[in-house]
Amino acid sequence: MAAVMVITEAAPAALVIAPGIHILASTSNDTKLIRGGHRTLVVTSRKPGYVKELYRAGAWLVLPSLQNGCLDLKIVSKALGYRQNKG
Q1: Span 4-46, pLDDT tens digits
Q2: Based on C-alpha coordinates, what's the Rg of the chain?
Q3: What do you get for the CA distance between the two ends of the chain, in Å?
Q4: How far apart are CA 7 and CA 1, in angstroms?
Q5: Which of 13, 52, 64, 74 maximizes the CB count within 10 A of its CB?
Q6: What is the greatest pairwise CA distance in the chain?
């Protein structure tokens, strides 16, 4: 998953395992923090190459993530083709 993330940057966000939030100071202004925890950050960016930039800044591992966490039901339901009945 980490290799796919480096090559494609296809996920809407990235789960970053890192020594701390200070690594964001070494990235472009386009990289936005969504949330953080102990040694983990969820970030997003529209800038191509931002995953490699995170590694250069000191990230230990960068994995694909959803912006609202693993249970982002809107995205998951769209991916599964779920249609809501209106009426």
Answers
A1: 899 999 889 999 999 988 999 999 899 999 998 889 999 999 9
A2: 14
A3: 40
A4: 10
A5: 13
A6: 52
Distances (CA, A) of 76 to 16, 28, 71, 80: 21, 29, 8, 6
pLDDT single digits (tens) 50-78: 999 999 999 999 999 887 765 555 555 55
Q: Which residue is listed with tokens 């039901």? A: 73
Query: Phi and psi (nearest 5°) for 60?
Result: -85, -35
* CA nearest to 38, candidates 16, 13, 63, 69: 16
Task: Give me the pLDDT at residue 66, please.
Answer: 80
> Phi/psi at 63 (nearest 5 deg)?
-120, 155
